[in-house]
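Below sits the subject:
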Amino acid sequence: MPPQWSFSVGGARVTGGLPETGAWAHVLGQYDAETGTARLYVNGRAAGEEVAVTPVAGEGAFQIGRARGAQGYRDRWQGEIGDVRAYDRIVVASEVRGLATRAPRRLGHWALDTAPDGLAPEEGGGAPLKLGPGASLYRLDDPCDPLDLECGQDFPLEMDGDGHLRLDGVTGHAATDAPVVDTSGSFTVSVRVRLADDEPAGPMTAISQGGEHGDAFKVRFDPENSSWDLVMAHADAPGAPETVLSRIESPDGNSGPGHRVTVVHDASARQVSLYVDGVKFDEGGTADFAAAWKSTGGLQLGRGSTADGWGEYLHGAVDSVFAYEGALSEEEIRQLPWLPAVGR
């Protein structure tokens, strides 16, 4: 039997959850005197089955890192322990989730309004996105009236700035030199994207981050199914299995604000989700994913890894890119790009 967390009260024990070497876990044991039951929570979620308990008095000192047995102290903890809390009341489910979850930390926001020397700056001074051949910035310097029928001028995709990035679908891309998110942990990545064609000729990747042989994640448009797809590779290896989530959408044809696509990887739940315009489908919007790996390549806009190297170049525009350590909630995703940069 694999190792499990456990919580013991008066001879009764609740077990569940899988410890991982080198990974932090939030573990909470709870005894409810009113119902006479004990419950165990691991990383904010109930683990194992609730059990009936006959409590016994414990008059000794509160111990951290060891337990008392018939022959003295035993079961000494080897590892790290932090943020220990004790309550003389029930901790409700919403509190458990809050205690177990670290607030997401913004790692980057690229407004894509300027690119001095071919480098689109990150607003907090982080790594810039370097524009490749076939990538250019559009700026709304002298707008015409959008109600004027003769106004054929483009407008920024996202209203957090006065520009966006145009990609030619041949070589156009932008990338950081190093990884932005740790793809082996929880992360959120979001970008607004608009396709230039009514009938794209092939798959096109809007955003990705990967390693030597493939992408840890990528979001691409698949014209065969007319869908935005989140593709999660199970390993950095040629031909690795993939988990795919899809959302049906029509191509933009170079008009309108496009769509905000958002990837959320929740490492504690071992799940990945795809949001389009702040909405996740109840069915098919989330998938179990226990094969996360740490990518070594930079964050890519407008291209993805293929069997023949870089490919799936995007013909269209991207704007207002966000990257977070941690999993944003659905409410927070809907607030992009106006979500405050808490945690920086």
The helical segments are 93-100, 330-335.
